[in-house]
Amino acid sequence: MKKLLLLISFFLFSLCIQAQEAKYVFYFIGDGMGVNQVLGTEYYLSAAKGELGVTPLLFASFPYATTAATWSADSDVTDSAASGTALASGNKTSNGTLGLLKDWKTSVNSIAVWAKESGKRVGISTSVSIDHATPAAFYAHVPKRGMYYEIGCQLPQSGFDFFGGAGFLKPVKKDDPNAPNVYDLCSKAGYTVARGYKDYQKKSKKADKLILFQKEGKENSNLPYAIDREKDDLTLTDITRAGIHFLMKEPDKGFFFMVEGGQIDWACHSNDPGAWVNEVIDMDNAIKVAYEFYQQHPDETLIVISADHETGGLVLTRGGYKLNVGALKYQKVSENKFTQLLSRLRKKYADNIPWNVMKQTIADYWGFYEGLALTEAQEKLIRETYEKTLNGQTPEMVKSEYKSDEPMSGVLKNIMNEIAMVSWVTRDHSAGFVPVYAVGAGAERFAAKTDNAQLPLKIAEAAGYKH
Length: 467
Prior knowledge:
This protein is of the alpha/beta class. It contains 16 helices and 16 strands. Strands 5-6-4-3-7-1-8-15-2-16 form a 10-stranded mixed sheet, with helices on both faces. The protein has a two-stranded antiparallel sheet with strand order 9-14.
């Protein structure tokens, strides 16, 4: 009788463990999203309503939360390739390296591969190019992250079910006319390419494997910043919704789905405050789609959110015990989009934009002179920049990590930082902690301070992936 009771107890315990495994896994990565990027956005959401304190983002309200360190194998300050490899495979590597150990020889498989080998459907997506460092860490193995063509060639070899993003940065090898086109390789491997969400809806039913990119003629490097978005632009929310829909073609299999909010990093490299808060909000909106799925499958779904590193060394004050992030509601475009607006004005006025036109354009897109008051020094700086760069001149552009901008765009952005009382220590990455949030099956594993390389191992444990 005792043996029978023990067997029954063991059987019930086994069923309980099995029931707790995460059948559906979402892994959201906010590139460049440190603790202050999240907290500052929550301050902004309250301040924009005229309230003090924070208005929680959905993902920051999840029941389990902690922080993770992000050092790489050769530096306390990681880059996205090394951190992406850690987040994907559980292995530290040198900066610039994807899917290999620091010896540049030993390949390491990602959690996406573990999921595929465990019989799950797999999706990898981002708001930047699909061959960029973070998404590439889940399927590619190259010693240098800039090997975009080689990374693209490895994508169809993965056999993953769904990819989403802006496009491929280098689908052809220009110095080798005999090298295959990455799109041709994808087609031969059975992938259907959809351009935009409506095209996805047309093609998804018959597709066995699918790649969702922006419409033809749009940027292949990144989706538009959320602050700059136009009506027909593909969004991270669209990609998330499409990915869930496609991966659920075989619901009994379960899935692993990585979604990167890639342009939080780009905005912070530019020290662009309005772009930063809107990118964090945009990722939260994509997470809301996953959370709706979780609510339908609460016992089988795990959602984990983290970041590869912090970017910009963001500080939420400029001194004097003050913060004024509510001012960011007046910023209507990113620094880079304003550069594009200036380019159009230059063409219209033959590089000699009238001051009254310039002043009104600044008021319309930054709120200066109308909604936001300027100091005498700030007004003087704007006028001097106009006289030196927009009054018959074609000045040298100012470069950040991913974009080049007009001097006037940079001046206006810096003034907005001053008014919002936001400080930036660097235009690069920092070694600061990144946040970790989790909800669902196995989420309790994400309650203690950790390291980025531990996250995929914890997810694999929660989902029952062998590796």
